[in-house]
Amino acid sequence: MSTKTQQRLSATSLALLGIAFIVAVSITNQLFKGWRIDLTENNLYTLSDGTLNLLEGLDEPINLYFYFSDQASESMPSLRSYADRVREILEEFESEADGNIRLSVIDPLPFSEDEDRATQFGLQGVQLGVSPDPIYMGLAGTDSIDNEETIPFFQPDKEAFLEYDIAKLVSTLSSPDRTVIGIVSGVEMTGSFDPQMQRMVPPWMVYQQAQQLFEIRNLGTTFVDIADDISLLWIVQPKNLSNETLYAIDQFVMHGGKAMIFVDPVADVDPAPTEGMPQGMPPMGQGSDLPALFDAWGIEFAGDEVVADAGQALQITGMDRRPVRHYGYIGVTGERMSGNDIITADLNVVHLATAGSIRVTEDSPATLDPLLRASADAQGMPATRFSFLPNPSSLQDGFSPSGDAYVLAARISGNLPSAFPNGPPPTGVSSADGDEPLEAGNADHLVATAEPANLIVVADVDMLADHLWVQVQNFFGQQLANAFASNGAFVINALENLAGSSDLIGVRSRASYTRPFTRVEELRVDAESRFRSTEQRLQSELDETEQRLVELQSAREDSGNIIMTPEQQAEIDRFIDQRSAIRQELRAVQRGLDEDIEQLGSWLKIINIGLVPLLLTVFVLLAVWRRNRRMA
After folding, report:
1. d(CA 571, CA 597)
2. pTM to 2 decimals?
3. Structural domain total, the chain
4. Which residues pair with 259 in a beta bridge?
5. Is the dihedral of CA 261, 264, 268, 271 positive or negative?
6. Is the dihedral of CA 393, 394, 396, 402 positive or negative?
7. Model confidence over 472-494: pLDDT tens digits?
8. Are 431 and 222 in contact (CB under 8 A)?
9. What torsion, rounded to 10 degrees, do the Cα atoms 341, 342, 347, 350 define?
């Protein structure tokens, strides 16, 4: 075969190979369209089971509009990277919704109809960096009847709850009706008439805020059944509830109902009757508990003990008008809030007063996830010490941290047994006036939860009162609220979370998509630890040398004479040379701080640029050699 023929065959073979490659890629794209493999360490692109169940349950299309200023953010690589992260998880929602989610990605250019539409949705344009135009990175959603829900701006620092926020928006659009919450309260938080002042006392601010988001239905404290349309119970300061009422609460939880429960060893907002007390003594706060239910569910509430926390004590005004730290008044902040739970992830500080503690028993089927915790500098004190406390500073007398981990608020979950395993309790006289007996129903009795329970238990009632978290002012008949603590946000977050479906509550917080160079950070810390002592020693020697030089020059008797003796000049030159050498060594130490990091970078370059291509070349040559050998 001639050389020219061989060349034609080689060219034809390459052309056919190129065509075959293009055809194979096209066929592969069609055959494996929609196939995904999540190889990230924390499964960043794999939706939670709760989200998947939520998407499978959609029965009508939902339109999602992701507005991102792609053109205006060209100089912001970190923001663009996070926008890609948001877009990719939205595409995952669309892919798993089986056609019931339709995603549109829009770049709202300045003065365009898209920007006007984003503004109508209520999305926020934020001035960032050097861009003269506002940056949009928000989500708007609509359903078939034009209900709207929005996420005004995706904040990168809330990345852990990115999936939850999107799932919550989808869940709200799929069920637009307002959630009905049944409130069971032993204190007048819903408003009352003050006979002494002869005027109406407005509802607590936290109750007013909840009314704006939910339908609140007051159940009282003597009920025997709970309506089917109530999906959440808000129980505050439960005292002396009848067995019939306890049974109704128990079976509500057994059938999958959610509950948020506030109990307290000493509730200042619920003063005890003053009859028989000495004249002038302030009323004492009453305690509350649910022992019949808590004992059965494996929950321990220390109702006779108040957590005194020196590490988080708030400063109040004492009886002598001087500030004093009250160990029973706690401001929970930072690391003592759960950063993995949507309820507390974004809160600043939550104020509590004479709070108790919560734990679960060793044999309890329940799982306790702390939301608010006391510091390590805390001790449990008898609740009677806080009943009448004229001088809060007396709590410091004999104070000794116990070392126990006190949980002030927690999420309780798991398969719980009923507190009434033998069925409904006997009917009895338990009505408010004591005349008519109440009958408890026994239909559909369950001896255990039908699905894992989800409860929020808080060991303090006072945190709901206005004086601990908000200043309310009357401005021309309008109430203006200025919150100085996150108590209201805590309650609203908890209600929103519990009011969602079980699938939404099960959506986990996600890890961050940013991957820090941990090896580089380890090298940097190690280099700093190795060279810091040397740097400090050299810097000390330099300071001493400069000080000696100043002393030598100032000690000259002929200070007015500009001519120095040879000995003086030699001494000064020696110190100057020593100072120069020390500074040079200091520069070497500074360069040494990054030496290991630069060396690691060099090795990575060698591996990526040189070693990998070399290995591929050797592999190809070996393959060609083996083929030629077989052909020979």
Report:
1. 41
2. 0.66
3. 3
4. 233, 455
5. positive
6. negative
7. 776 555 666 788 999 998 999 89
8. yes
9. -60
Own/partner pairs, 488-492, CB within 8 angstroms, 24+ separation? 488/205, 488/206, 488/209, 489/346, 489/347, 490/343, 490/344, 490/347, 490/350, 490/409, 490/463, 491/206, 491/209, 491/210, 491/260, 491/464, 492/206, 492/209, 492/210, 492/213
- Let me know how many helices (H) and strands (E) the chain has, helices first: 14, 25
Could you give the CA distance from residue 481 to residue 223 in angstroms, rounded to a whole number? Answer: 34
Residue that is written with structure tokens 């196939």 in the block:
35
| C-alpha pair distances (Å), 536 with each of 254, 525, 531 | 66, 16, 9
223 within domain boundaries? yes
Q: How far apart are CA 461 and CA 236, in angstroms?
A: 7
Residue 613 lies in domain: 520-555+566-619
Q: Give the CATH number, domain containing residue 388.
A: 3.40.50.880
Tell me if 42 is assigned to some domain: no
How many other β-carbons are positioned within 10 Å of the β-carbon of residue 52?
A: 17
- What's the pLDDT tens digit per position in 458-476? 999 999 999 999 887 765 5
Q: For residues 249 and 223, give the distance between their C-alpha atoms in angstroms, rounded to a whole number.
A: 9
Q: What is the bridge-based pairing of β-strands 323-333 and 407-414?
A: unpaired
What is the end-to-end Cα distance of the chain in Å, rounded? 17
Asked if residues 426 and 262 have their Cβ atoms less than 8 Å apart, the reply is: no
Whether residue 375 contacts residue 336, with contact meaning beta carbons closer than 8 Å, is answered with yes
